[in-house]
Amino acid sequence: MVPPPTFDEVSFDSYIPDPNEPSQAEAVRKARDFAGRVASIHAASNRKSLFGKKKQVQGAGLYLDGGFGVGKTHLLASIFHASPAPRSFGTFGELTNLVGALGFTNAVDRLASNSVLCIDEFELDDPGDTTLVSRLLTELTARGVSVAATSNTLPSQLGEGRFAAQDFLREIKKLGSLFETVRVDGPDYRHRDLPPAPEPTAPELLAEKAAATPGATLDDFDALLKHLSTLHPSRFGALISGVSAVFIADVHEVSDQAVALRVVVLADRLYDAGIPVTVSGAKLDAIFSQEMLDGGYRKKYLRAISRLLALSRFEVPAS
Questions:
Q1: Pfam families recorded for this chain (predicted)?
Q2: In whole angstroms, what is the distance from residue 69 CA to residue 90 CA?
Q3: What's the CATH number for 5-189?
């Protein structure tokens, strides 16, 4: 549970705030201060008393909220790098997968020694995850683990538009109370001053480019979607391991939500690994139907589009 390769070497100093967005410089300051608090809390929680018992210290929480491409993951990874070991970093989905694999009690015991748990793209897709994460963070912060999280939704709004939020309002408020919320405003840096989505590549040229790129893959879009349906999302990272570039033929709009959410996970893993994406067929900003973009998972789909467009502008490795 470490930051993806894209954020291996980031730091607070390498984050360049937009001078037109004062909240960004303030977010850097808050994140840097939080990392200092993490170190202090971790040291205090490991300090024994005269009776040989460790002192009980409550962990701190920081919640970075903002739109796409404002550098929230950069700041989260910077907190990870600046905090004392052991520490953990993962997406919300990876965290729930970890609890599922280890079991709740074992997961708490494994994570309880951390100075900080960094959770990227914090989200609540169903009531089970709401209760699970609420319990997990309550247990961990009580043991002195600090928690830093990013999301595109404020804590008080988590779960809105996805399930009966009023039934879990107490749990959601409990989650929100763990964090100091810091707003990060600004345009998506991935597309700042850039033209619209690139035009798709001609089919015959796509195959030619894929053949000329060492370590590249070439797949038909429908065949790829069918294969993804046979894998657990936690395996998507292994699927692209060692791949230098991804070429996808005959891309088209996806109208099935289960399929679309798999595309979101794949886009996240491709972006984490910094793998260029080139397609034929439809433009990458036309993958999700308008009905989906207007629904409860709107922010997931917009994030995926933002990341896929960024990957489509990455330079493909030369042969």
A1: AFG1_ATPase (PF03969)
A2: 18
A3: 3.40.50.300
Cα 211 from Cα 264, distance rounded (Å):
26
Domain ranges of the chain: 5-189, 194-312
Q: Which residue's entry shows tokens 């929230």? A: 72
Rounded CA-CA distance 112/124 in Å is 22
Measuring CA to CA, which residue among 275, 219, 208 is closest to residue 247? 219
Q: How far apart are the first and last CA of the chain?
A: 33
CA 137 to centroid of chain Cα atoms: 18
Coil vs helix vs strand at 279: strand
H or E stretch covering 281: strand 277-281
Q: How many residues does the chain have?
A: 319
- Is the pTM here over 0.70, yes or no? no
The enclosing H or E element of 26 equals helix 22-45
